[in-house]
Structures are given as structure tokens and as C-alpha cells.
Amino acid sequence: MANGVDERADQLNKNCEIEDAPSTFKAVVWQHFGFPVSRNDKGEKQTDKRQTICKSCRATVAYNSGNTSNMRSHLSHHHPEKLRTQQPTEEKA
């Protein structure tokens, strides 16, 4: 079990609820990522906005308020087809 920590994290991510990013987040990478959600003892939803979860492979990617570079890098290395087929969410005037 050389990679036990990663295996446990992967299993948690597979069962993790994902909350979509707010509509004010305009970067196209947000189509493929969301924030992990957990429940406290009272069943209340708690969203962790320090990391994101890839909707395709459930990998955890660090998120630093407003910086989507880590998410774009993950897509380019692990899911390049997602970047090739992405359409902008808004047309430029």
C-alpha cells in the first residue's frame, strides 16, 4: 500500500458531493470543476472553497481565490479534449 493516502482520497472524492461554481465565475474551466461539499454532524452543508474537484475524474485540485491556473493545467494534462471543445460562455462584442 505504497499509495494508500492517495487511494483513500480518491475513494472520498468518488463519493463526494460537488457544488457548481457560482454563475459569477466566468472562466470556462468552471464547466468542468466544482467545490467539494461535506455535511457536519447536524447535516448542514459545508463547502470547501480552498480546493476544487474535477467533474471528469474526481481529482482534487488546489484553488486560490480567483486563480484558475491549476484547473486549466489539470485539464490540459489529463483531459486535453475538454479544452479543445470548450466554447466561451459569452461572446465578445
TrEMBL record:
Compositionally skewed regions (Polar residues) per UniProt: 64-73
- Where is each BED-type domain found? 24-86
Task: Please give the SUPFAM superfamilies that the UniProt record associates with this protein.
Answer: beta-beta-alpha zinc fingers
Chain residue ranges for the region called Disordered:
64-93
Sorted keywords for this record are: Metal-binding, Zinc, Zinc-finger
Transmembrane helix is among the record's keywords: no
| The UniProt record lists the keyword Zinc | yes
Which molecular function term from Gene Ontology is one that the record holds?
Answer: DNA binding
Recorded protein name is Zinc finger BED domain containing protein 1
**What species is given as this protein's source?**
Dissostichus eleginoides
